[in-house]
Amino acid sequence: MNPQSLSDLIALGEGSTTEFKRAMPSDLGREICAFANATGGVILLGVSDVGEIVGVADHNRLKSRVQSTARSAEPPISVEVESVGEVLCVVVPPQERKPYSFGGRFFIRDGASSQQMSNAEVENLFYAVGRLHFDKKPCGVFSMKNDLDDETWTHFSGRAKIPEAMDRVVALRNLGLVDAQDRMTHAGAWLLARDIRTFTTSAHMSCALFMGTEKVRILDRRDFHSDIPTMIDEVVAWILTKINVEYVIKHVRREERPELPEEALREVVVNAVAHRDYRSTANIQIYIFKDRIEIVSPGGLPAGMEEADLGTKSVPRNPLLFGMLYRMDVVEQIGSGIRRIRQLCRGHGVAEPVIDVSEHWVTTTFFRTTTEVGDQIGTKEELRQCQPELQPELQPELQPELQPELQPELQPELQPELQPELQPESLKQRVLTQLRKGPMAKSDIVRGLGQKAVSSQLNKVIRALLSDGAIEYTIPEKPNSRLQQYRLTDKG
Which of 6, 76, 249, 346 has the CA that lies 20 to 30 A from 327? Predict the structure, then answer.
């Protein structure tokens, strides 16, 4: 700092980053601490409250006292001290180890004064800088006796790869999901929840399908609130039932190709769940419009991350939860989420999603294709609900002009499998009727329906029944297991 810059600084007066002191004050540690917990600042020793330079003597001795005072903070604060004429300038740069205390108390700069922080403010600052994690705190409403029943444990332990013979509390303690007093952490409660809202009221996810491109008319709305891994599966399944699907004929079989890559959608949902701020009273919201899908997560970016870091750096806000999701194979690879999402979209031939970051929210937007019928443009879901007479347009594989292309490859007895979408509700009932006989694999359901192979419409119906809670997996921890079967729930 030179005399001119000092003069300019004094001319601006005291404020959130500048403090004037006539002499070395007894509460200098308080002022240094307050600046360190904010964005930094400058303390000018030898300047009166009205900006008059009065000077201080013996700068070398004062420099030593200032440095000693700064080192007495917890943790020690780095300061720079320099003389500019008669004024001693104490510069407190932005600090990285917040929050700081002095004499056992915490202070923060508030306007032109320094104030002692309340306990709540101190806790919020610990969270904000990533030195305290909500997912590791004990969940006071979780009962080890009532909430950790046999069914819940079996469901969780399989996905978490816990040996059957291991004691439950020992396993949870080793995973860090219970603390030293054997109290369940929030992360553990979210992974073991039957209804996650019991433990954190805003931890559920809300999904809505809108007509058109604005939040004017809702066509469908669902809340999902089971344990976190199951909730992720259910939300992704719900999204897939609401977006367009292309039917691709390959080797006499018809395959579904969603308009957006399923794994990219799943990755964004997982990121929203793993990195959101669970102290927020807002929940994750997913909006499906005609032209886009928005996945909105509360909390902004975690401490230590900037928007430019997306795709190159991973700083989990909930490290315990994130580590467990990785162990349970919900997270594919630590640190690769955004990069993988972009690669998946490029490989699928669609635009990369746009990520919008604000102080309290992170919104990821996927851009959709639309189905155009005359002057009607919208998703299949919209067209089904709003224009029944247009439904034949949603079934291009049934149009006469397309059938010759398919017929050389298809045996006559296989052609009915191209038409299950004509009666989706009827097919749902037939699947439920089959499952009343007991758990079945997909191949058993196909035989019971009198079909030759698994059709795309059957896959869609099974996903819808899973999403609605009418059926469930017999091996929920391994949805793609070759031994996987389906069974009716009480709702089904």
Answer: 346
Q: How far apart are CA 418 and CA 415, in angstroms?
A: 6
Cβ neighbourhood burial of 256 (10 Å; 0-12, 13-18, 19+):
middle
Sketch out the chain's domains with CATH numbers.
3-128 (3.30.950.30), 134-198 (no CATH), 205-367 (3.30.565.60), 415-492 (1.10.10.10)
Q: State the CB neighbour count (10 A cutoff) for residue 173.
A: 14
pLDDT (mean) for 72-94: 95
| DSSP secondary structure of 24-47 | --TTHHHHHHHHHHTT-EEEEETB
Complete DSSP assignment for 44-99:
EETB-TTS-B---S-HHHHHHHHHHHHHTSBS----EEEEETTEEEEEE---SS--
Extended beta strands in 299-353, E state? none
**What whole-number distance in Å separates Cα of residue 171 and Cα of residue 182?**
11
How long, in residues, is the chain? Answer: 492
Reported as a single tens digit per residue, the pLDDT across 371-414 is 433 333 344 444 344 443 333 333 333 333 333 333 333 333 33
pLDDT at 198: 96
The token pair that represents 146 in the structure block: 């009532």
Indicate whether this model's pTM tops 0.70. Answer: no
